[in-house]
Amino acid sequence: MRNIPIILSLLFCIQQALCGAETILHSTFDKTGKSIVNNLQSKGLGYFRGALPPGWQENFTGWNRSVCTTASHRDAGGGFLRFRIEKTVIRPPQFFAPLPELQVPATYRLTARMRNRAEGAPSLSLRLIGAPYTTFHACTLGRSGAWETVTSVFTLKEKPQSSTGLYLFADGTGNFDMRSITLEKLTPEEAQAAFAAQAAAGTARLRRPPADARNYLRNSRLPLGLQSGWLRHRDAFQGTIRADSASPGPSGEPSLQLSSLPGKQLGICSEPFNVPDPRQRSAFSFSYRGSGNYTASIISENRALASLKLPPSAEWKRVAIPFDAPADAWAMALQVVGTGRINLDAFRAASEHETAYAAAGECEVALALPESELSGSRIQFTDEPARFRYHVTGNFRGAELRLQAVNLYGERRRLQTVELDDDRRGGTADFGLFPEKPLGMFRVEAQVFRNGKPVSPPNELVITRLERPVHQGRDGHDSPFGIHVSGSADSIRAVKAAGINDARMHDAALNYIGWAFLEPEKGKWRFFDDEIASFRDNHIRLFAELGTAPRWASFLSRTRTDGMPSPGYWGNYFLPLNQQDYANYVRTVVSRYRGIIDEYFVWNEPWLGSFFAVGYDRSRPGGFIRPENPHAAFTELCRTAFRAAKEADPNVRISGFNTSAGNSAWTQGVYDAGGFDWCDMVDFHFYTPRMTGFPDDECRTAVDTATGCIAARRGGKIGKPVYMSEGQGASFSVSDGGSSLRYAGMYRHTVPWENREDFTRLADNNVRYVVSLLGAGVKRIFLYSAHCYKDLASAPSFLVLFNADGYPHPMLAAHSAMARRLENTQFRRVRQLADGLYLWLFQGEGRSAAVISKRSTAAGGTVNTRLSSVKAADLYGNPLAFPLRPKDTVIYLEAPESIDKLEHSITFTQGE
Questions:
Q1: pLDDT at 177
Q2: What pLDDT was estimated at residue 736?
Q3: Which end of the chain is more exposed for a tag (fewer CB within 10 A), N or C?
Q4: Helix (H) or strand (E) run with residue 17 in it
């Protein structure tokens, strides 16, 4: 009997060999080894008790304070192992199994049979066991109360430089069950079939066009400008993009004109599309004319599949870009980037030999907002009419335009039907049909029908309706709400509308302030005054980095970069050779922007070797060589920056430490080196994939582990403001059920896949994270990042408030509702209404506000008030009536009363 598992495992391997797949790892979690106890809590570390399958090890108790146990269980489906996550602290409990040497290039299939009832989303990761812990593939397992099989097919192209392991991250508080995990290497034929099966099974949920489709695009002409899915390029945004009615194109409609600012780049990305059969070669064709210098590319997942230069042409010229679609691509898009002026029209994606212009249907519907304050960001304030524009092109006579609107809650309202003729092909329509829920986001859907049959592709426009923020049109000097955002005016105005008042200049907009960009040659300065003015003109205050160093002034000039990852990025973070040169940079910048930029921070993440290097040796773990005493080196840099900045502007404020959650060793080292004397604020970084919004949650722990040692040395109080200067608790915490989060928000027709994104949970997690940090005493919070989008054909990471196309995500609407209520308030205390139900209390001048947060495990019940003056609102700011039934998302309370009066008026009654 004891040989049965061995025999079954052998039979499994034989079966896999016969069908071609090579099994790299097959772990069944119904059988485990000897139970162990690793208890390092007395040392301030983690705790694990239980057993694991053969070959698996726990990998967290020696460095992480999380608590997890395992126990074997059985049900009708057989045996399984239950992971009970009792506490996650900064990083989740993690377990791994070493892997043999993996072949490259090769395609692998990872399969897990699991059930998750925890608050977080567990994940699997193929990564290096040792530094630099490079991850080659990761997939989120999702959150489901039922058993499910999760399959992820991926191609490994880069040979790991050292031993690899398959890691299981058991995330979030609660129970997570696992039956089996299998990793297989596929043959090329199996790989192609697996990618196709993955799509057909709904894992990627691709919606491919039919084989006889004339055009894979919904919008082939743009008479009202950029349509849903089309966007201004994130990094090439300086200039105007408009529908040029004075220059109709070959489609017979106004063409799209791109006109860059002198010396600046401008670009667009098209709506995402896919192809019927990736085995057949395709082509993207369009017409252009102009005097600019532009390049067109077909892109997918941040890489170009094919490119074509567009030489100046005074006449309309038809061009085509042949390309091969990746079998596993979620989408592709056209990207056009360059300088000067160019007009574009008559877009078509089709098979390689079909490059003459043809639309997908007889008609197309273009949608846009009326010109207004924030129409470029697709945002309207509630004091503006809830209206949109439409324009039908093609063979529309005798047809009808059907319109409907959908809100964030999935509620639909039919709009008027328009009988189309030459006089009624365009106009405006009202979508304000949700008077009980006027705030949030609304998806307007449009399609042309003739005799009851559709004769156009569907189009849509997602519109965000917000109340004006407290500080609209002026600076918010004491506002706690900040972000990282690019210099695009539309992006800046969008985050301002969300209640954001400060921007941190790292990655996003760093090229306007970093030394490496301002003085590329000694003594030859260049400045970006107009770009910085774009922030300030829109009343976004700046928290600017005094960081990076040009090659001539840094240790990079003495370093070989062979094998260094992204030398153009990491090379900027080699330390200055000479403190006097760095001081001169600081004085120059602070003097130039005196009265314009009031706050700076020194460097970025100096506790990481890649951000704080004096050399590089690819043979060393991680490659990057740090200073002999990095704490002292960073403190010296802070001293130099502080003195030089105060010399240029005595009123300027400088932040120091730049530590991170769980990194008390770095904080302590900088403090011991004297770093506290050379800063006005203390800042730290904190990312979490877990739900927060509870007393003593990870936000509280993050503040304690990042800065607590300073308070301990100073009688229990830091005495200086604390900023969370980079982090988030939303965007990468919830999968949409696929292998990655696509940040598609409310889009339905825009993306060529079935969009199952749980955008409300993303929005709620982001709000909880901010509220909890405020409750932990953080003065200002800089979310990372609103600049991480590229296009809807590429999956971004660490994105907040925006979709992958740079337009508002429901997270933005939720942040707006939170910021409007908590602006100009101070956190006072948190009260437990019931087990797992909490009331966060904030006091303002002549008013008070509260946030109700609930754990998923809390019992049901109702919240009521004894005061008629108390108003309640949901996550998006829409009104709620008492009694309230708290569910999964936060609820806001407001009253023109003291915080004590509001708190004492709130009652909770348990029961459904």
A1: 93
A2: 39
A3: N
A4: helix 4-18
Q: Does domain 504-654 have CATH number 3.20.20.80?
A: yes
Asked if residues 455 and 449 have their Cβ atoms less than 8 Å apart, the reply is yes
**What's 231-360's CATH class?**
mainly beta
Which regions of the chain carry the CATH code 3.20.20.80? 504-654
Cβ–Cβ < 8 Å for 505, 515: no
> Mapping DSSP to helix (H, G, I), strand (E, B) and coil, where does residue 883 land?
coil
Model confidence, pTM? 0.89
Q: What percent of the chain has pLDDT over 70?
A: 96
- Average pLDDT for residues 261-276, to the nearest whole number? 97
- Give the integer Cα–Cα distance in Å for 720 and 718: 6
Q: How far is CA 883 from CA 843, 860, 880, 896, in A?
A: 23, 13, 9, 19
Q: What is the pLDDT of residue 199?
A: 57
With CA atoms as reference, report the closest residue to 525 among 505, 550, 500, 558.
550
Lookup result for tokens 């404020």: 653
* 3-class SS of residue 150: strand
Cβ-Cβ contacts under 8 Å for 892 (sequence gap 6 or more): 817, 818, 821, 849, 850, 851, 852, 872, 873, 874, 877
- The boundaries of every CATH 2.60.40.2550 domain in the chain are 375-466
22-200 classified as CATH 2.60.120.260: yes
The DSSP string of 522-547 is TTB----HHHHHHHHHTT-EEEEEE-
* Average pLDDT estimate for 628-645: 98
Q: Name the more confident of 424 and 91.
A: 424
Omega before 785 within 30 of 0, i.e. cis: yes
CA pair distance 724, 702, nearest whole angstrom:
10
Domain 825-910 belongs in CATH node 2.60.40: yes
Distance in angstroms (rounded) separating the CA atoms of residues 11 and 779: 61
Residues contacting 35, CB < 8 A, separation 6+ = 49, 50, 51
Whether 634 has a pLDDT exceeding 60, the answer reads yes
Which tens digits make up the pLDDT trace of 753-779?
Answer: 999 898 999 999 999 999 999 999 999
Among candidate residues 681, 684, 638, 692, the one with its CA nearest the CA of residue 661: 684
Spatial CB neighbours of 645, under 8 Å, sequence gap ≥ 6: 546, 586, 587, 590, 600, 652, 654
Class of domain 375-466: mainly beta
Share of the chain above pLDDT 90, in %: 79
Do the Cβ atoms of 493 and 398 come closer than 8 Å?
Answer: no
Give residue 217's pLDDT band: very low, low, confident or very high (50, 70, 90): very high
Q: How many CB atoms lie within 10 A of CB 562?
A: 9
Residue 132: cis peptide before it, omega within 30 degrees of 0: yes
Query: Is pLDDT above 90 for 787?
Result: yes
| Closest-CA residue to 739 (of 277, 104, 154, 324) | 154
Q: Residue 900: what residue type? A: D
Taking the CA atoms of the chain, what radius of gyration do you get in angstroms?
A: 28
The three-state DSSP-derived secondary structure of 792-855 is CCCCCCCCCCECCCCCECHHHHHHHHHHHHHCCEEEEEEEEEECCEEEEEEEECCEEEEEEEEC
Identify any residues that bridge with 869 across adjacent strands, giving them in sequence order: none
Longest Cα–Cα distance of the chain, Å, equals 84
**Which pLDDT score, from 0 to 100, does residue 737 have?**
38
The C-alpha atoms of residue 346 and residue 365 are separated, in whole angstroms, by: 14
Measuring CA to CA, which residue among 829, 817, 835 is closest to residue 890? 817
Residues spanned by CATH 2.60.120.260 within the chain? 22-200
Task: Compute the average pLDDT of residues 780-807.
Answer: 95
* pLDDT tens sequence across 281-330: 999 999 999 999 999 999 999 999 999 999 999 999 999 999 999 988 99
Q: Which two tokens stand for residue 424?
A: 């009624």
